[in-house]
Write a structure and sequence with these properties.
The structure is a homotetramer.
Chain A (H helix, E strand, L loop, with lengths): L4 E6 L15 H16 L4 H6 L3 E11 L8 E12 L2 E10 L5 E12 L9 H8 L2
Antiparallel strand pairs in A: 1-3, 2-5, 3-4, 4-5
Chain lengths: 133, 133, 133, 133
């Protein structure tokens, strides 16, 4: 599969739990970091937006866990993005283990952009980003 | 809605991110803790099982974010569980803000139980738990 | 020992690492939550201050780990606070395991208060809090 | 200053808190990851040891916070290690911001190695590592 963006990671031991595998909640951290790096590379700065009270928020996450990551594993996140409705963006994100290319996780993350009063607000730079897809 | 189990929480400030709201990944922590407390109350000890190489793992998570939690918010997790297939358990988990009962998040978490070799293995105590539903 | 404030906790499984014990970094989370709850109970709201660009920050942490916490452990944090210099506050924080009162961790956390430009700034409410000790 | 090991990082947004800076507890995560990567590069595998019930544990941490890291910051951890007593190892760890080399944090982390029964136990590979310094 082709991805618009990919980012390399390595498991950190504090991310693993009693079972010796990466805790299920940590994958949302990996996915968020990959999304924000993608946005940054596309000229959209999550933190700068937050400072101006434009908040990109997740409205829905669907995660399919296929193979657990373990201590020492390298992995990468592949990402594609599209505007699904006027006010919603959809990120398709896949995680692969580096050593053998095995699929680790498939996710669909839906987000929107809201202003200070919690109302949907899609700024020009965000809209431009997704229209380019 | 009636729940088989509920657990009270309070937001901790380190769980909030730049946007001043609980980070989207933290909700999976809340949900896991509620599931493990439910299992423990039902006689199934996640940590003791892990020590014996019986691992309860999440295979799918579906999260719908409705209202963000913020610093100072109390909230509670309501949980219902059922065996969805021979080898899969399904947890329906809802989070509500305590001050006004507002729905914060709806989740369906699917899990299974695997043995040392990564094969599906449903022990008697786990099977008994879900059959009682 | 007498404490000005104490707060009860229970270990959550996602806080434990490969070794089956609470990860060393998580204790700083416990200590922060106890400090913020203490401050809140004393009329100082960390999050509200942050919104007004008054930031309470940690400048030094000394942690002595005595006994590791494990899955299922209840524990409590005892806290005493004092103003150590004009611009510094010191929190003495001890963690005890609930089941047997065993000392888990001793910490001294030093903090200060800074304004928007990163300069030390001790507001009246903060100063009042510590002078009362 | 010369370091026996250094590791590059980039701040991830979920590591930042309400104040828009990396939360004080997260630095212990960075430091742990740097130590484990150093140990691995030196032939000591933390996770493999844990599986064999040889646990490397932190007994004391001293952290001096100098400059907060923020969203987007690159940084690196420099590390030196020495055996401080027969049973204790000491890691001197400094964090620097990449863009301007500014000192972010200074830490001294003391650790020991314990066996299944919680008794101090320094295996040959660990002892060899520190004696080489």
């Amino acid at each position: 599969m082709d991805y618009a963006f990919r980012l390399d990671f390595k498991v950190r031991d504090y991310e693993c739990d009693i079972q010796g595998i990466v805790n299920n909640g940590v994958y949302l951290n990996y996915l968020e970091h990959a999304r924000h790096e993608y946005l940054l590379a596309s000229g959209v700065d999550f933190a700068a937006l937050a400072k101006n009270s434009i908040n990109l928020v997740v409205t829905r996450a669907e995660l399919d866990y296929k193979t657990p990551l373990r201590s020492g594993d390298g992995f990468w996140v592949g990402l594609n993005a599209r505007q699904s409705t006027t006010l919603r963006f959809e990120f398709l994100q896949h995680i692969y283990r580096s050593c053998d290319g095995r699929l680790v996780l498939k996710a669909v993350i839906t987000g929107t952009s809201i202003n200070e009063r919690g109302r949907p607000f899609v700024s020009e730079e965000i809209s431009g980003l997704f229209q380019r897809k």
